[in-house]
Amino acid sequence: MRHRAVPSGRIARMGAFGRLAGGVAGGMLAEGARRLAQGERPRMSDLVLTPANAARVADRLSHLRGAAMKLGQMISMDAGDVLPAELSAILSRVRDQAYRMPPAQLDKVLRQEWGADWRRRFRHFEAAPIAAASIGQVHRATLPDGRMLAVKVQYPGVADSIDADVDNVATLLRVSGVLPPSIDLSPLLAEAKRQLAEEADYAREGDHMRRYAERLAGDIRYVVPRLEPALTTRRVLAMDFIEGRPIETLADAPQDARDAVMTALITLVLQELFAFGEMQTDPNFANYRWQPETGAIVLLDFGATRAVPPTTADAYRRLIEAGLARDRDAIRDVAVETGFIGERAATAHRPAIDRIIAAIDEALNRPGAFDFGDRAFVPIVREEAKALVADRDTWHVPDVETLFVQRKVSGTALLAARLKARVDVRGLAAAIGR
Q: Is this prediction's pTM over 0.85?
């Protein structure tokens, strides 16, 4: 990871976006002139999404961090198949790039949160972070009694810049031509701003961590770090440092280990949806660690935890019931009624939607556990979905609450596919009603 100070003031961040806009505009003029000279009539999106502009946008969002980088990461995970290849490449680069605060900026943040003599609180505090993400970076520290902590320190200025950052990323999506003008993003943008503001409150995240630890106490499949309240503030989160391997390393583990971990994670999603009444909605793989000695999963990062409204839980319950009954007409009707599928799309593309439902139904109802590694049905779904994606007049934005829950559901399925896990999905779903 490289040092790079985070622009922390409103003017500094506006200036960074201004320089980005200027650089992109300059790149557009140069590319437009080149194409016109060759007798072409380029579209606006062709001029925006050039390789040079992609590099500019990715680098600037990574530099800004905060909500701008967080949204880039989310969109690249959730909508990669829908975005233009160039824009998807930009956002993937944002997801992979990591900078850390220079030591002087880190010290300034910790002085503001803990006081000038903050180093006296520790036997040792590692200046180099062990992880860097969109909103903060994580350091390892040792207390005087020898207890080891993981300390997440928020980048300065990110909480105050959320509204502007979200609006600027939305402008990028609009200008790129990926979204039709008919789509009203206002409710989604307002909710994204609210959610990101909550994620930037580390005291709130600490409370959620504590509640999850209480709910899962005694279940050896899960490990939740213990909060250190004396060192936790709105901008610093301190917790036990717990050893674990990246969840992706499970790909090389025996089949039964992969199956057990994914069964536990899917069970947790169902508990969140139907028992807890709240869900940690960020499925980023970095939020999980695996302990091979015990097979337990370490759960990290509870900032994106949010309440699940009863109406949303009921919509999923009805879909599951229709799926267990293998009533494909009911699956489609419930999906439309609850907003998973838009009414206009269901009318215009009913045969394609029915074939998608049939492909998924057949895959889920093969004998034995569902094999997430068997992707034979995916090309069918992707081919049938082409017409829906191309028909921008029928695009539909589901309810905001559904979007956040579905992000967790889809992300968990993506991890299961990555690990080629086999899980008794039908059995887990059937247990909901018992």
A: no
